[in-house]
């Protein structure tokens, strides 16, 4: 910590030596650099404090819009004619009685319940139903219902249109119930109209069903008559043709029963006597052929000697058994006796006899099989002859039955059509009555006792909500459009610069000099806080040369320069205040018209001869001097650097009050020479682009901007209440606007 910083901390007065012949370099090492957008990477977030600030700032506007909206809703409510609403509940039967049977070959039907219910909703809103209600209640003749139509037709159309417009149909989700309502200024009329709609809907539905069945009955009756005549004529033609051609159908009785089977049997004329005889003979011939083949097979097997019939004969089997025994006995005794032995000869003779008998018996079996074969063959040939004879007869009958089959099919077709029409006619006769209705009344309408509209509570709620939305929208719209610098947050968010402090607006009837003289005032404490903040803008301590400037005039830069100079002088520092505005000076002295900064810039005189002591101990003033024709040219000569270096050699701190930045070259030139630059911004008056343009000009001249002072700040109008206060009494004396640090010339000379 250097000597000057210790003096700021301890309040000890000290004079710097006068041995400084050069202006020291600016202490940029470790300085608090201005914020830049490149270094700010945090994404924007929802700020509750900012929202609250906007609400507090525009609270009276929001409240005014809400009050106006509520007042308008009250006026509308009082001016609106009361409307009464009567309602009834209907049940729609999605499975009504079908007029026609759902036979796929006559009247196929495919209908969903949703489609059916939507159809009923449309019928309830139909013009025909409204016309039925209007005529039933005589609404066209009711002057209180429709008026202003001299023509009867126009009155009827107006009444129908009014019923359709005020009728509401609302299906109850998940059920077959429908809620219908009607709104009308007359509660009794509203109930009568909605009840007439309910009963008229049911009556119209029944009428449509009755008309549909009446048409169906008439249509079927005509078709039955014509179909019966065709059936009788076709049957007569069939019988006459059969008699002329001598065709006798054995199953004609079955054919008259109709149906598909009858039509199929008559389709081949094969049910006559000749046809049935041929069929029987064919069956007998087939059987005879089978018998002949079997007999022939047995006969040929027997003729070959290995016939199965001979082997199966009981006599042959007994003889073969005896022979086998004798042969066995012969072979047994042959080992003992000679063949010519008498006993052996006897056995051999007996064996030969049995062989003779077996052969004879076998021949008898073969003769029997031959006879059976010849008989079967003869029977087959006889049947074949009869079949051949009868086939020609059947073919002749078939030729004559072609026309018969044509007539028979005509009879079957007419009979089937007649039976179907007769069945439908009987079904219509059963379903043609009233039966089950498609709709029924669950709850009839009653006369309402309270109006449906206007609803005062709802209107008030809508008014409050609309006013709140409009108020908030207006407030935020104005806030969005208004891009002036209003709050400390705007300094950091919009300008990206450090906030050195804010200075409250001076109340009405109070001067700035008086406020600064009272060290316990809000303004004095604000500048004390700013002075303390300036101590920490660099790591080396309080800046030796400070330029105080603003974007435009009357923002409080001169006042801020004076306040900082007085506060520094009060703590014992030697301070030189240079009035650098040679166009419109803010400080005057008795000799400011002959000596000052402009005079020093035009010659090589000593600084001490132009410095004026002030009423504040330790504070000196270098006035602007006579107003030159072109101040920017004087500052560009380089003489200003020598003057500031000489001032730094004689004083602890040099404060320069510069002209506004925009439109002038003075402030950028001075900011490039001074160690630090402080920008003064008037709250709620200067727009962000103006300040940013000023800052860009300073930065282009290599100025070291250490922060911003926000002046003429009123936390109430900014929407912060008392959130930014200094001292215990801050915020209690805000009144009319006062020109704190305006362009008015301040006399601070001794």
Q: What is the compact description of this entry?
A:
By secondary structure, the protein is α/β, with parallel strands linked by helices.
Structural class of the secondary elements?
Answer: alpha/beta
Q: What would you call the shape?
A: elongated
Query: Unreliable stretches, pLDDT < 50, 5 or more residues?
Result: 10-44, 97-109, 252-270, 722-744
Query: What is the spatial order of strands in the main beta sheet?
Result: 5-13-12-6-11-7-10-9
Report on this model:
The strands form 3 sheets. An 8-stranded mixed beta sheet has the order 5-13-12-6-11-7-10-9, sandwiched between helices. It has a 4-stranded antiparallel beta sheet with strand order 2-3-1-4. Strands 8-14 form a two-stranded parallel sheet. The chain is of the alpha/beta class. The protein has helices spanning 3-10, 48-57, 59-79, 113-124, 127-137, 152-166, 187-245, 252-255, 259-265, 273-303, 308-311, 314-333, 342-431, 456-481, 488-495, 512-517, 522-535, 557-570, 597-600, 631-635, 639-650, 666-673, 688-700, 715-718; strands spanning 84-92, 167-171, 177-184, 439-443, 499-504, 545-550, 575-579, 587-588, 612-613, 619-622, 653-657, 676-682, 705-713, 746-747. The chain is built from 24 helices and 14 strands. The radius of gyration is 66 Å and the shape is elongated. α5 (127-137) crosses α7. Among the domains are: 57-77 and 454-478; 84-216, no CATH class; 486-719, Rossmann fold, CATH 3.40.50.300.
């Amino acid at each position: 910590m250097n000597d000057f910083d210790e003096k700021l901390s301890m309040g000890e007065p000290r004079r710097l030596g006068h041995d400084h012949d050069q202006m020291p370099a600016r202490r940029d090492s470790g300085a608090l650099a201005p914020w830049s957008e490149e270094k700010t990477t945090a994404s924007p977030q929802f700020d509750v404090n900012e929202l609250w600030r906007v609400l507090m700032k525009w609270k009276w506007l929001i409240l005014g819009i809400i009050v106006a909206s509520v007042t308008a809703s009250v006026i509308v409510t009082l001016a609106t004619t009361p409307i009464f609403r009567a309602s009834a509940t209907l049940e729609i039967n999605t499975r009504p009685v079908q007029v026609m049977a759902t036979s796929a070959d006559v009247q196929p039907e495919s209908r969903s319940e949703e489609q059916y219910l939507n159809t009923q909703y449309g019928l309830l809103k139909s013009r025909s139903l409204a016309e039925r209600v209007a005529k039933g209640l005589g609404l066209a003749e009711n002057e209180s219902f429709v008026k202003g139509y001299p023509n009867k037709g126009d009155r009827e159309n107006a009444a129908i249109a009014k019923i359709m417009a005020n009728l509401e149909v609302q299906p109850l989700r998940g059920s077959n119930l429908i809620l219908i309502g009607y709104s009308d200024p007359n509660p009794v009329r509203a109930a009568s109209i909605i009840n007439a709609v309910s009963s008229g809907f049911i009556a119209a539905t029944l009428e449509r069903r009755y008309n549909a069945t009446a048409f169906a009955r008439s249509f079927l009756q005509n078709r039955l008559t014509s179909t019966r005549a065709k059936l009788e004529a076709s049957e007569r033609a069939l019988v006459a043709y059969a008699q002329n051609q001598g065709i006798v159908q054995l199953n004609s009785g079955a054919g008259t029963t109709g149906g598909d089977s009858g039509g199929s049997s008559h389709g081949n004329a094969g049910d006559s006597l000749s046809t049935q005889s041929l069929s029987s003979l064919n069956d007998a011939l087939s059987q005879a052929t089978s018998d002949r083949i079997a007999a022939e097979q047995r006969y040929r097997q027997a003729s070959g000697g290995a016939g199965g019939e001979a082997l199966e004969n009981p006599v042959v089997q007994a003889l073969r058994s005896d022979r086998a025994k004798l042969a066995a006995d012969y072979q047994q005794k042959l080992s003992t006796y000679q063949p010519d032995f008498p006993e052996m000869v006897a056995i051999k003779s007996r064996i030969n006899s049995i062989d003779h008998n077996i052969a004879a018996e076998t021949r008898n079996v073969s003769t029997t099989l031959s006879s059976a074969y010849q008989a079967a063959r003869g029977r087959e040939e006889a049947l074949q002859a009869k079949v051949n004879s009868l086939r020609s007869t059947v073919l002749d009958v078939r030729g004559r039955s072609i026309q018969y089959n044509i007539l028979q099919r005509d009879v079957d077709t007419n009979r089937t059509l007649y039976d179907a029409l007769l069945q439908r006619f009987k079904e219509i006769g059963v379903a043609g009555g009233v039966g089950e209705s498609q709709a029924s009344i669950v709850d009839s309408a009653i006369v309402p006792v309270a109006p449906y509209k206007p609803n005062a509570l709802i209107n008030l709620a809508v008014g409050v909500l609309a006013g709140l939305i409009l108020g908030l929208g207006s407030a935020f719209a104005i806030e969005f459009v208004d891009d002036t610098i209003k709050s400390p947050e705007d300094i950091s968010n919009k300008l990206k610069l450090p906030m050195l402090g804010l200075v409250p607006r001076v109340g009405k009837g109070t001067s700035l000099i008086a406020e600064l003289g009272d060290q316990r005032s809000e303004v004095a404490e604000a500048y004390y806080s700013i002075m303390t903040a300036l101590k920490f803008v660099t790591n080396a301590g309080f800046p030796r040369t400070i330029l105080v400037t603003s974007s435009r005039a009357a923002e409080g830069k001169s006042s801020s320069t004076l306040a900082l100079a007085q506060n520094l002088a009060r703590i014992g520092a030697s301070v030189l205040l240079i009035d650098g505005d040679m166009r419109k000076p803010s400080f005057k002295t008795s000799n400011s018209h002959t000596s000052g900064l402009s005079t020093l810039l035009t010659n090589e005189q000593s600084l001490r001869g132009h410095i004026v002591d002030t009423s504040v101990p330790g504070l000196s003033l270098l006035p602007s001097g006579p107003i030159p024709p072109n101040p920017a040219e004087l500052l560009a000569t380089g003489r200003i650097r020598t003057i500031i270096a000489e001032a730094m050699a004689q004083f602890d701190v040099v404060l320069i009050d510069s002209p506004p930045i925009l439109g002038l070259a003075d402030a950028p030139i001075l900011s490039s020479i001074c160690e630090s630059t402080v920008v003064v911004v008037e709250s709620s008056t200067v727009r962000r682009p103006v300040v940013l343009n000023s800052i860009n000009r300073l930065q282009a001249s290599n100025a070291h901007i250490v922060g911003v002072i926000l002046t003429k700040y009123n936390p109430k109008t900014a929407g912060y209440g008392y959130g930014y206060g200094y001292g215990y009494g801050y915020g209690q004396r805000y009144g009319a606007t006062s020109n704190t640090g305006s362009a008015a010339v301040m006399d601070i000379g001794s």
